[in-house]
Amino acid sequence: MNPQGHQGPLISTSALAKQLDLPARRVFELLVDKGWIERIDKHWKLTGKGQFEGGDYVNSKKYGEFIGWPESVLEHGIFTELFDRPLRTRVIGRDLDISAHRFNALLAELGWQQRHHRGWILTAAGRDRGGKESEDEESGVPYTLWPRTILEDAELAAVLDALQQPLQAIARSQQSFREAGHHAANAKNAAADDGNDAKIDAGDTEGEDKQPELLQLDFGSQEQDEQQQPQNATPLVAMDGHRLDHPEDAALDNWFYLMGVAHAYHRNLAEATLGCCDFYLPAAHLHVECWHAADTGAALKAKMARLAYYKSESLPYFELSADQLLQLDSVLPKTLLKHGITVF
Predict the structure, then answer these.
(1) How far apart, in whole angstroms, are the C-alpha atoms of residue 105 and residue 98?
(2) Domains in the chain and their CATH numbers?
(3) Is the pLDDT of residue 207 over 50?
C-alpha cells in the first residue's frame, strides 16, 4: 500500500503514457510541470506532492527502481486536458473492441475520411465532426485524429449498433448452448444414479442378453425441420443490403463489406444437389461455411455434405465457428492471407 492508502499494483509513468496514448516524454513533462516529480542527478525523484497523489518507488529485478502510480491517478484533474485531446482510431477502436483497420474502414464508409496511399485523410464531413489530420514522424503516412465526442454522433452510433446486434445474438446463442449442455449433463448424471439404484433394488440377472446402449443421431427430415424452425419477423439486412438468414452470416457479411472483400452470399455450387455455400469469395475461388446456432438437422446434414464435396474436389474453403465469428478481426486477416487475399 502506498502512502495515501491506494491498494493494488503500481504502474510506471511509461505505462500511464501508454494508456493515455501519449509519448512518455509528454507525461514526464506534465508531471514535472505540476510538481509531482523532479530530475536529480539523472534520476527521477518523487516530490512531496507526488507522494501525496499516490506515487511511490517500486523495486524491480528487471528494471531496478522506478516511480509507480496507482491506475486511479488517471482520473486526476491534471489529465483532463489530455483526455480531451483528439485520439487515434486505434485507441477509439480498442475501446469499442474493433481493430483500427476496421474502424478506419467504418469511418470511410460514413464518408468522414478517405484512403490516401497507405494512410487516411479527412473529408469535409470529417472536419465538421472535429477530426484532425497528422502524419507519422518517420514514414510521413497520414492518419486521422478524433475527439471522443464522435461516439455521441447518432450516425456512428447507429452503425455501431448494427454491427453489434449480430455479435450479441451469437454470444447469446453460445450462452444458451452452454447452459443447455450443463442441464443435460446434470440430467444424465441424475438418470444414471436412478438406474444404479434400480439395479441394486432388482438385482442383476445373470445370463441375460445385454444390448449396448447406442447413441442415436437423428438429423430429422426437411419437413420436420421446417415445422420446428422459428420464422424471423424481422429479416437481417447487412450493411451492403444482403438479406441474411442468420446473425452469424450478418456478422461475417458486414466484415467482408467494410474490409473491401468482394463476396457472394448463397452462391450455387456446381453440384446442384448440394445447394449453396454460405459465402463465396471470387478473388480466390474460396468457399466459406459458417456454423449457425439455429441450423436445423437437415441444414447440418447439407453443410456436412458440402464440406465433404469441397474436400473431394480439392476446392479451397474454410469454416468459421461461433467463437471465431466473435473474433473476426484477429481470425480472418490471417486466414484470407493464406488464400492470397490481403485486407490490410
Answers:
(1) 11
(2) 11-81 (no CATH), 86-152 (no CATH), 246-344 (3.40.960.10)
(3) no
Q: What pLDDT is stored for residue 192 in this prediction?
A: 55
Amino acid at 17: A
CA–CA distance, 308 with 131 (Å, rounded to integer): 50
Q: In whole angstroms, what is the distance from residue 297 CA to residue 312 CA?
A: 23
Angle between helices 89-96 and 100-109 (to 10 degrees): 100
SS3 (DSSP) at 111: coil
Length of the chain: 344
Instruction: Decide: 146 and 86 in contact? Cβ < 8 Å.
Output: yes
Interval 46-62 mean pLDDT: 93
Closest CA to 123 of 146, 100, 154: 146
pLDDT of residue 122: 97
Determine contact, residues 292/248, Cβ cutoff 8 Å.
Answer: yes
Q: What is the DSSP letter of 292?
A: -
Stated pTM of the model = 0.69
> Considering all CA atoms of the chain, what is the largest pairwise distance in Å, rounded to the nearest integer?
92
> Which of the four pLDDT bands, split at 50, 70 and 90, describes residue 222?
very low
9-18, 190-199, 299-308: which range is least confident on average?
190-199
Contact 293, 177 (CB under 8 A): yes
Contact between 21 and 87 under an 8 Å Cβ cutoff? The reply is yes
Residue of 189 and 129 predicted with greater confidence: 129
Decide if 289 contacts 305 (C-beta within 8 A).
no
